[in-house]
Specification:
It is a single chain. The protein contains 6 helices and 30 strands. By secondary structure, it is of the alpha+beta class. The protein folds into 2 domains: about 200 residues, Jelly Rolls, CATH 2.60.120; about 200 residues, no CATH class. The strands form 3 sheets. It has a 17-stranded mixed sheet that branches. A hairpin with a 3-residue loop joins strand 10 and strand 11. The protein is elongated. This is FecR family protein. Keywords: Signal. InterPro entries: FecR.
Amino acid sequence: MHFLSTIKFYANLSLVSLSLLTFAHATPQESAGIVTFMLGKAYLNNELVHVGTEINQGDTLETLSNGHVHIRFVDDALVSVRPSSKLSIDHYAYNAQTPSESVIKFDLKEGIIRSISGKGAKSARDKFRLNTPIAAIGVRGTDFVVKASNKLVQAVVNEGAIAVAPFSSSCDASAFGPCSEAVELDGTSKQLLELNTLYSTPRLIPLSASIELASELFKSELTNSQSNTEDTETESSEKDQNAKDSSNNTNNAKSNSGTDTTSGTSNNSSSFDSPFSEAMSETEVKQIIADHVAKNSVDQLTTSPVSTKLAWGRFSSFGKVYQDTKNDTLIYESYLDAAEGRESLPVAALLGAANGLPNATALFRSGSDRSSIDYSLGNVDFDLKASQVNLYMPDGGVEEMDITDSFLSVDFTKGSFNTGLTLNSLITSKVKFNMSGSINSNGELFPGSSDSTRHFSGATTLEGDEAGYLFYKEIEAGMIEGATIWH
């Protein structure tokens, strides 16, 4: 037996050596990637990371509890490194001329990452490997999230598939590609894969039975990435406490439920709790916000998420500005900033809540020489310019949603509109949002029918060159809030 084991050991060693020789011609680039987004603090080989920092083969990236880093690699792969995580780029040799000969290997020592495969991993699936402390992960052209520690690995696939196997004599950590005895998780299966040191093989759990586990994969990013720099950490914690104190005096946002086009629709019957009376009209809400704009001055204008004639801003009846710098990528965290350089009376507003803090979100519009919309424009098809869609879950977690398909058609002559979005996230199936209705002479969009699971408010510019709307939609996993700007 000892003799046979020795032969097997040297055979495996020879195979690994042969593989490395085969991959030798895929020479690593001088730079494997670059940091494109940065929150909080992170270190690359013990040096502070900044936007623009180059990532190379052999580097180790470590994020602090408030750190969050996005990396774009040379083959257009994207990796999001969440707070309290440690990722090593063991090997990154992308062959642009022959992508199938690329060799890529990561080592997630702890924490959470989201990986979206680039040309290298898609073309050379047999040479891509993500190691964790207890398992090897291969891909099938994929978008997935992995949480890893010394005792546990959890994964959710958004698109494509991954193959996960615990390390063993037949699954060596030094090898490349998926292991032969791996368990595969497909993005269409609506399952979470989990492996811990007590299991001999990974197990698959239906997402419907593991929503808390799935949301836990994202929670650390949402609860820890509260400040952009060390200088703002104290201020951020004070804002978080203010939000907590305020939310203790209010109920979380809810909405009525009903039949919908997605399998994740809730059948509970409830209504939105807001800081305003439910009997208050949208016009009254707009006037309240306009009065606050008139009474307050803007000390400092925050950087605009997107330069437009239309801008979204949040307003809270508690007198405190709703703060969510992590998830508010399109909506100004202060309505005062959204109103700067625009009319003080918002053209659209919607009551709701985000992270349990009741607020109104209002759309401000630049002034115009026109007094009404241009009815001669006829039917105009808009393109989605910018968007922000988040799923607010009952446990306090927030998951960003992607818009995979969109349309907005406004008939200025007939006074009607029709719009639709297809939404997707790591923990939900595809969700459809559709709305049609009318547009008045002031460019305000009004939904044509009442639906207890959907809430909508929007407007266009009087010139008809921009549009924007905000919506809420309740599904089984939580409440979706979405803001859009169209050109």
